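ligand=adenosine-5'-diphosphate
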Amino acid sequence: MADLLVLEGIRKSYNVGTPVETEVLHGIDMVIKLGEFVALMGPSGSGKSTLLNIIGLLDRPTSGSLLIGGEETTQLSDADLTKLRAHTIGFVFQYHHLISAFTARENVLMPMLVDRGRPDSEMEMRADELLDWVGLARWRDNRAMNMSGGQQQRVAVARALAMDPLLVLADEPTGNLDTASARSVFELMRRFNVERSTTFLFVTHNHDLADRCDRIVEVVDGRITEDRVNPEGKSRR
Ligand code: ADP
Ligand code: MG
């Protein structure tokens, strides 16, 4: 499989040039191949979200190189980063970040609307197909605020997939859910990965879910301390 992400010597400092300047990533080297489902683990404060924000082009590294699909991204303009992000990367966060007064369908349409301006029937079909796929076809006209936490997170997964991204970055997407909902959200992502070869980077503290990923990377204090493949991950139930 081709390399989707190549990180070399990624460092990140916050508050650069001030007395409280702190380096939180101390040189991350990592290659993620197309189609991998990778668990990212590690204690709170170890730099997992910082790393995801950099890979997701939401923040820039202080130094180092980040290639996405072979393209060096660290020299790109903000406008080019925005464009690359919209077409390549989907996000799922711990708190779903849905627009609560919007319906499930409107929330899933949002990334396509931002990209293309106004709704058309193709976009609506895509939104409905994704909502069906996450098991929420009957709920599509319900406002997000009237849905359960598990349902909201499934809408968030559908929204992350709306632009058919190569990569989904999921930052503790199940951290806030009960065991059954966490499992169902994980299974959706895993099934999408297996069926469509979408690459996932999934931050979790849950060892049972991590054991079902293709690979487990551990970050402690801004450094990768472990990186192991998990060949049985796909078949584990
Ligand atoms: P994790 O996601 O593993 O819990 P984070 O990436 O959120 O870790 O944080 C890593 C470290 O960077 C922590 O010490 C945190 O306090 C610090 N940090 C995160 N974001 C900022 C920021 N915007 N400004 C300053 N420090 C930050
Ligand atoms: Mg975090």
